[in-house]
């Protein structure tokens, strides 16, 4: 069961605010590891707090313009262009996750309209059908090996030579396999680890 915050009730929220002498009172940040633009912090008793904006909210629209796929600077500029008043369409983390699971992009129509519904066990059923389809394909398309021919009658000379030849081939193949495996192990190197952390971008508004 999905739990939503009392503020969102599983819906996007439209937060409209007017700039005070100290600005809107929230920090906007982006992180390359998490696509999108997020609210990092909201100042107490600020226009942002009074509008219902919350930390960790993801910004979907600024003044009616979609911010999906936009860069950090684009969102900041869109807020500044609005002058002393701005309107942000946002979703909290729980609502954002729910819409992603439904494969639906949240929009203004979800402020009051019907919400998307997840299909129960939809993913599992699809996976099972896919597995069954692959099994059918394997049985239908995989080549059927013809039965091995029975060995022809061999002369006493051929019968006596066969075991030695087979043993020689097997011993040579095993030796080659061991040598190649040893070479691969000696050539393997531990990957160089990148300890440089990606920096987040911050803007105070």
From TrEMBL:
Q: Give the UniProt entry's GO cellular component terms.
A: apical plasma membrane; filopodium; microvillus; ruffle
Matching entries from InterPro entries are given as: EBP50_C (IPR015098), NHER (IPR051067), PDZ (IPR001478), PDZ_sf (IPR036034)
Q: Name one GO molecular function term.
A: signaling receptor binding
Major localization class: other
Q: Where is the composition biased (Basic and acidic residues)?
A: 124-141, 195-205
Q: Output one GO BP term.
A: protein localization to plasma membrane
Subcellular location(s): the record lists: Cell projection, Filopodium; Cell projection, Microvillus; Cell projection, Ruffle
Return the SMART domains for the record.
Answer: PDZ
As given in the record, the signal peptide range reads none
Keyword terms: Repeat
Give the region (Disordered) as residue ranges: 124-205
According to UniProt, the name of this protein is: Na(+)/H(+) exchange regulatory cofactor NHE-RF1
The beginning of the lineage is: Eukaryota, Metazoa, Chordata, Craniata, Vertebrata
């Amino acid at each position: 069961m999905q739990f939503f915050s009392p503020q969102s009730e599983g819906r996007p929220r439209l937060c409209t605010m007017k700039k005070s002498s100290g600005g809107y009172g929230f920090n906007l940040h982006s992180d390359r590891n998490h696509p999108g633009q997020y609210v990092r912090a909201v100042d107490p008793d600020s226009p942002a707090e009074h509008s219902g904006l919350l930390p960790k909210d993801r910004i979907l629209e600024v003044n009616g313009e979609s911010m999906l796929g936009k860069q950090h600077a684009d969102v900041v500029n869109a807020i500044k262009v609005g002058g002393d008043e701005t309107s942000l369409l946002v979703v909290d983390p729980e609502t954002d996750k729910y819409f992603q699971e439904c494969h639906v992009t949240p929009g203004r129509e979800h402020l009051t309209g019907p919400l998307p519904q997840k299909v129960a066990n939809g993913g599992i059923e699809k996976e099972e059908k896919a597995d069954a389809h692959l099994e059918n394909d394997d049985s239908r398309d995989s080549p059927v090996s013809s039965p091995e021919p029975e060995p022809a009658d061999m002369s006493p000379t051929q019968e006596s030579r066969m075991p030695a030849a087979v043993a020689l081939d097997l011993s040579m193949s095993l030796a080659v396999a061991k040598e190649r495996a040893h070479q691969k192990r000696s050539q393997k190197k531990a990957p160089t680890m990148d300890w440089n952390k990606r920096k987040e971008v911050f803007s105070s508004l």
